[in-house]
Write a structure and sequence with these properties.
205 residues; alpha+beta; Aminopeptidase; seven-stranded mixed beta sheet; 7 helices; 7 strands; binds coenzyme A
Amino acid sequence: MAEIPLTRHPTSAEKAAAIRAAVRAVTFPANASRRLAREDDAPAFHDLIADPRVSGPVYTLPKPPTLEAADAFIKRHIEEHQRGEGLLIFEYDAAGAIGGYHDIQFWPEWAAAEIGGAIRPDRQSMGAGGAGAAAAFNWLFDAIGVDLICETAALDNIRTKKLLERLGFRFLGEIESELPDGGKRPSLYFELSRKEWATRRLSVP
Ligand SMILES: CC(C)(COP(=O)(O)OP(=O)(O)OC[C@H]1O[C@@H](n2cnc3c(N)ncnc32)[C@H](O)[C@@H]1OP(=O)(O)O)[C@@H](O)C(=O)NCCC(=O)NCCS
């Protein structure tokens, strides 16, 4: 089982503390379509992840994606937010359903993050994933202050692979990702450093 990130450059205590503080301080305006997950979001989140076109490729989501598992997933992320180690962000549509989510893990000691997530099937393959990922990478480097982003994708997840390669991620090889139930899944593994993104972002619309 590979522990990620594979690249681990210890950062200073000050920088690690600043990343934790920045993660803890994340909030969204009250009227925004996007916001941090709350405990009462579990039914709406369950509606999203119950669809295998959403949860199937995502190794971090519970399988089976029951309501209880959705509730536990949200509660764990609320605790991670309080520690400055994780964020679960939901994008709501006008009808009050969740149209997509971002799940971000932080390793402040290595100034590193992993971002995962999914988009509801009726919104997939229309460019939202690529645009949202590029915006999230800008925010993670600029506002949160990480120096490295790592990503994994199921071996057959063509869309994620294409998106990451277009945005400049380096493919480091195949790893075995640890599943929430203790099993494992083969994954493609990618990394993007702050320096690489500084060059690449200039050519990303
Ligand atoms: C993966 C996911 C986030 C991508 O978002 P998206 O909005 O659907 O994808 P985009 O429209 O931005 O397309 C991403 C890339 O895949 C390509 N693509 C889109 N649909 C495709 C298809 N059916 N077949 C092959 N390539 C496709 C796009 O051309 C684009 O390539 P580019 O970056 O080289 O231009 C989204 O499909 C999703 O939520 N999938 C289910 C869950 C999942 O896989 N999450 C990621 C786990 S790591």
